[in-house]
Amino acid sequence: MDNNGNGNYIDLINDLIKGIFNDAIRASFKDPGMAAFFLKTMLWQKKAASVRQENEESGMHVPPVMILSVTDRCNLHCAGCYAQNLPRAKEPEMSEEKLRSMLKEAKEMGISIVVLAGGEPLVRPEIFNVTKDFPDIIFTMFTNGTLIDDKVLLQFKSQKNVIPVLSIEGYEETTDLRRGKGVYEHLQRMMAKLNEKGIFFGVSMTVTRSNYVTVAGEEFIHKLRGQGCKAFFFIEYSPVRPETEHWVLTEEQRAGLLKAMASYRERLPGVYVAFPGDEKAFGGCLSAGRGFIHVSASGNLEPCPFAPFSNTSVKNMSLKEALQSDFLRTIRENHEELMESDGGCAIWKKREWVSSLLEQA
């Protein structure tokens, strides 16, 4: 039994990661160079898993995934955006040097997948100066796509380990309603350029009760695949603003989404990922370093992007030390209390409990 109360969940996570890269290879069969890259990546992921296991046996749990918000700034003002609505104090962003040193430590500990988030990551185009130093870490960059230009396209082309993931809400009316007029058409142009240059890219869809039928529907997936998209991230909306609680998926819709994804994996080659997805299969919430950890733009180590609570920062201590905080350990040890029951983010729903743990730490 591992120190998180679930003897096999680590193996399940490793199998999930292996499956994702197997799917990426299948989706890249027409591009031998990209398929070979993902095959090499699987070897790197296997090595990282071994490092994490060594740490586990020595009493230190390390998650495979880090969500790194490189900035809180964004050039758009999307309705319901968690990053713009959560109560975070305004602090200076981590420097390029600090980002590099923190990622070096993360790699040495066995963290092998980094989700670049924000804000809008491309507000800081210098992030490519950092990612180029870590070719064996997979960086998925979640971007609104509006700041992609020819220079950025060249970076994506030369750094295969940095995978652009464009945010889209469905067709034009729905996307522009949430993100701003003209965003959908711009995304169509960017996808065409990414496809033309042979860049492996994906899309991220914030799934709400109202757009579920569209974004989870096969017609929309076929359209995106026809545009060259090979990875599909379904992010369930979490109601960080009380008046948006009716946006959250119903239990029926959540089950339908997972069923549709399983069907697509079998019939339509591509990478399909849902967040939070069915965390019940892993014994509860994977936040707080159990499966992933969040590092804020200022360097605070937080359980999850939707839970801006922290008592440690990589600005003034090592990542290793920060990961072992009593606050995060207590959340990990109570993961069964954070089962996804009726949609949204469980840890955000229990934020008062999480906040009380912070006061006790």
UniProtKB/TrEMBL annotation:
Membrane-spanning segments: none
Keyword vocabulary terms for this entry: Iron, Iron-sulfur, Metal-binding, S-adenosyl-L-methionine
Signal peptide: none
GO molecular function, one term: iron-sulfur cluster binding
Radical SAM core domain boundaries: 60-269
Protein name (Swiss-Prot/TrEMBL): Radical SAM protein
Phylogenetic lineage: Archaea, Methanobacteriati, Methanobacteriota, Stenosarchaea group, Methanomicrobia
